[in-house]
Amino acid sequence: MTTLNAPLADLGLKNVRIHLNPGVDQLYADAIRLGEGVRAATGPLAVKTNKTGRSPKDRFIVEDDLTRDTVWWGGFNTPISPDIFDRLLTKMVAHAEGKELFVQQVYAGTDPKHRIAVRMVTEMAYHSLFIRNMFVRPSPQELEDFQADWTVLNIPSFKADPATDGVRSDTFIIVNFTKKMIIAGGTQYAGENKKGIFGVLNFLLPERGVMPMHCSANIGADGDTALFFGLSGTGKTTLSADPTRRLIGDDEHGWTDTGVFNFEGGCYAKVINLNPEAEPAIYRTTETYGTVLENVVLRQDGTPDLDDGSLTENTRSAYPIDQIDNRQPDGMGGIPRNIVFLTADAYGVLPPISRLSPEQMMYQFISGFTAKIPGTEDGVTEPSPTFSTCFGAPFMPRHPGEYARLLAQKVEASGAKVWLVNTGWSGGMYGQGKRMSLKHTRAMINAALNGELDSVAFEREPFFHLEIPTEVPGVPAEVLNPREAWADKAAYDETARKLARMFRENFKRFEEGVDPAVTASMPNPDA
Ligand code: ATP
Ligand code: MN
């Protein structure tokens, strides 16, 4: 179905065929017709993309009166001039002439008080299906008088010329807060659509007293909300899909005066080596019509081979949250009672679960630590540390201190308990030890959320001053204290000191402007 140009007339687009709010059937047909992907034998639309992850170095924010003093420039927030934005937009509009474009009118945010209305204009049919799955779909009534606050224009076939266009490569994602627009070219990775709007909310919401968070969220049987912060691969999606708790969302939430709300209407799960027994709910989405499977290799018979990482290890399933049976239908929950910071510590040093004081919470939130396992190709055998402030530096336009203060206020007012959970290595660093068992991690988290750790004794380890429970139902005691889990105690001490030094080194850039009590809770490499 094509309609007239009218919905995009303001962009100056000429002679384009527009598909307005196409549904799943049509988007399958169009994606297949345009050669973007195929229908997997199990139901999903399977696509391959030129980039298999985000392009954080090609992301820019227009620097103007609105952003000059409000954005924290440096790191991932790279300024670009309004002129460059305008010129690229003009070129994109010219490039789009004669093409067909897909438009989805969606919300970012389940809470009607805080959501923004977005018009997502994409060249790829598969992006349109991804957006339909991942954003909040308006009701037919809401669509009738839908007024977009923001517009995203994403045209992967438009490639910038770094020599003349003022960008770094042929790929760019530029946010313009004044014009309320994001333009993107050069990359087919659909995750840019979702994380682009995430960055917008992360800029807008703090001004309204709402804390935007890179976290998953779920609700227990007695209505208690839990949040799970963490960098990529630490377990936000995996651990929030808990059979005993209702899922609110797996990646992006806001904390208001009354509770939390999901920014999204779907989930974006990693599916490499997905185990149907350990993660049945996520596995089922790979066998469901409507799901988008990104860079998953299909076998000869058209079924997905989830163990095949030959295109990328970052294979993904994007599905509407309705595919998860045990979900919270309105995407909202009450004030959190527990907050879990997830880290996948490939050094095997941090305890599998520990309790954080308010100062330690600030310290860990600002540090945002995880450790990647060594890459296979370059002969590196040591893990590499990642410190990404607020557990999501690439998505946070403001100064980390702003987010940290807002979170601290909310946590204090709520009395929520805060936990640090290491979903990474145990019994030795990557190579010697092994990954923490998912079963044990789930048991530890459930014990914390159910209040079962309120009555057990805790011991304090010397390097990070973390309080470790001495017993957790369903978990062998020797797993709980990381030093006990290592056969070679001297090696543990040495590795712990090394990690403590890395924490301190990283934190130097934040020390100024942080409460001295927070700085006093720093790890101690001399213990
Ligand atoms: P992203 O921000 O990229 O979406 P994420 O935080 O949602 O990342 P997951 O997609 O949940 O992370 O990835 C965690 C991965 O680690 C999964 O593949 C999961 O199966 C695996 N895993 C192995 N052991 C554990 C454990 N003990 N706890 C959590 N995840 C584990
Ligand atoms: Mn996730």
TrEMBL record:
Cofactor comment text: Binds 1 Mn(2+) ion per subunit.
Enzyme class, UniProt record, top EC level: lyase
SUPFAM superfamilies (UniProt xref): PEP carboxykinase N-terminal domain (SSF68923), PEP carboxykinase-like (SSF53795)
Entry binding sites for substrate: R54, Y189, K195, R316
Keywords: ATP-binding, Cytoplasm, Decarboxylase, Gluconeogenesis, Kinase, Lyase, Manganese, Metal-binding, Nucleotide-binding, Pyruvate, Transferase
Gene3D superfamilies recorded: 3.90.228.20, Phosphoenolpyruvate Carboxykinase, domain 1, Phosphoenolpyruvate Carboxykinase, domain 2
Single Gene Ontology MF annotation: metal ion binding
Binding, ATP: K195, H214, G230, L231, S232, G233, T234, G235, K236, T237, T238, E279, R316, T441
Cofactor dependency: Mn(2+)
Chief location category: cytoplasm
Catalytic activity field: oxaloacetate + ATP = phosphoenolpyruvate + ADP + CO2
Any GO BP: gluconeogenesis
Pfam families with a match to the protein in the record: PEPCK_ATP
InterPro entries: PEP_carboxykinase_ATP, PEP_carboxykinase_C, PEP_carboxykinase_N, PEPCK_ATP_CS
Gene Ontology, cellular component aspect: cytosol
Entry keyword annotation includes Secreted: no
Binding site for Mn(2+): K195, H214, D251
Enzyme Commission no: 4.1.1.49
Pathway field: Carbohydrate biosynthesis; gluconeogenesis
Subcellular location: Cytoplasm
Top-level taxon of origin: Bacteria
Alphabetical list of NCBIfam families matching this protein: pckA (TIGR00224), PRK09344.1-2 (NF006820), PRK09344.1-3 (NF006821)
Family statement: Belongs to the phosphoenolpyruvate carboxykinase (ATP) family.
Role played: Involved in the gluconeogenesis. Catalyzes the conversion of oxaloacetate (OAA) to phosphoenolpyruvate (PEP) through direct phosphoryl transfer between the nucleoside triphosphate and OAA.
Name by which UniProt lists this protein: Phosphoenolpyruvate carboxykinase (ATP)
Species: Deinococcus deserti (strain DSM 17065 / CIP 109153 / LMG 22923 / VCD115)
